Amino acid sequence: MNFKEILTNWYSVNKRELPWRKTKNPYYIWLSEIILQQTQIKQGLPYYEAFVTNFPTIFDLANASEEEVLKLWQGLGYYSRARNLHFTAKYIVNELNGIFPNTYKELLKLKGIGDYTASAIASICFNEPTAVVDGNVYRFLSRHYGIETPINTTEGFKTFKALATELIDTNNPADFNQAIMEFGATQCKPKNPECTRCPFNSSCEALKNDTISKLPVKLKKTKVSKKHFNFLVCISSDKKTVFNKRTGKGIWKNLYQFPLVETKSSLSVDDFKTHPLVKDFFNGQRYDFTLYNETEIIHKLSHQHLHTKFWIIEVNTLPEEGIYITELHNYPTPVLISNFLNDFNFPV
DNA sequence: AATCCGGGGCG
DNA sequence: CGCCCAGGATT
């Protein structure tokens, strides 16, 4: 048997039953692929179910507000995926009469769709022999063929894309692509791959040379930076608080949070008392405050560690427009904020 | 080509 | 605690 026969045979026996494997509808495949970017199936599955239930067609998604979409996406991370998903749904409905593009080249033009997702949709839905290259493919191919080119470089991408394109089963690109990814995910795993019962263990270069743990090669990434966040949790006498949408280009765009004071270092109670931005925020009004968490909450993102303090501040009237505390849970927020909302007992 | 963007799980 | 995950956009 050749490579593609071994692989697709393995897949026919070992594939998992997943909801998006029961359809070739490009809307559902697109939805699943966006949700599963940099996300494991176990984590993404409930979100996929929720999106299909709330937005059964691309028209439903296009007609929703961005806020509804972000709310449903809450907790999944990489929120630009949700914004691009919504943008592209509206684009397809309004500019393409709701008809999904059906070639790799056209799919690639859509916002939020790059090489991987265009290849996945084109092959799975339209039988175009475009090879997918994701983390699973990098790992499996680098091990099987003993390729040491770093995967997070342009050369690495080109090398593995070309190899996967050579290997793909042009008669059944849909199953081949899903098979090679499934194989990487459940058989040729990052840690403790199942080499003893692997159908490729007689031809695997890495197994032969004992380099499984060294492959794929990945260049070191940049170090994480430390930031200090101070959230101002206002409580007015009429049970309202200030809760605003993040704007600009940084993290958590369009998600909601309490007013934020970012500082160079950790803020003590005395620092807080005299901090110009805090005094400025309350515009001279007097206020009583307590520090909610004595020890900082360290919220870890891939490139930032957010050292966070929540300050509970009682005021007579809010310094700016606010919302009722009972409405807080209706807004899309980062996990850092929603955890606080779950843990903190607002006075009633 | 390098950097940024989240959050969860695993060993 | 470091690494990995069905990547893409921006600079």
Automatic annotation (TrEMBL):
Q: Which UniProt keywords apply?
A: 4Fe-4S, DNA damage, DNA repair, Glycosidase, Hydrolase, Iron, Iron-sulfur, Metal-binding
Leader sequence segment: none
EC main group: hydrolase
InterPro entries in the record: A/G_AdeGlyc_MutY, DNA_glycosylase, HhH-GPD_domain, HhH_base_excis_C, HhH_motif, MIG/MutY, MutY_C, NUDIX_hydrolase-like_dom_sf
Q: Which domain of life is it from?
A: Bacteria
- Per the annotation, how and in what number is the cofactor bound? Binds 1 [4Fe-4S] cluster.
Q: Which cofactor does it need?
A: [4Fe-4S] cluster
**Gene3D superfamilies the record matches:** Helix-hairpin-Helix base-excision DNA repair enzymes (C-terminal), Hypothetical protein, domain 2
Catalytic activity, reaction form: Hydrolyzes free adenine bases from 7,8-dihydro-8-oxoguanine:adenine mismatched double-stranded DNA, leaving an apurinic site
What's its EC? 3.2.2.31
In this chain the HhH-GPD domain maps to 35-186
Q: What does this protein do?
A: Adenine glycosylase active on G-A mispairs. MutY also corrects error-prone DNA synthesis past GO lesions which are due to the oxidatively damaged form of guanine: 7,8-dihydro-8-oxoguanine (8-oxo-dGTP).
Q: Which family does it belong to?
A: Belongs to the Nth/MutY family.
Task: Kindly provide the name given to this protein in its UniProt entry.
Answer: Adenine DNA glycosylase
- Organism, scientific name: Gaetbulibacter jejuensis
Q: What does the record give as the organism's lineage?
A: Bacteria, Pseudomonadati, Bacteroidota, Flavobacteriia, Flavobacteriales
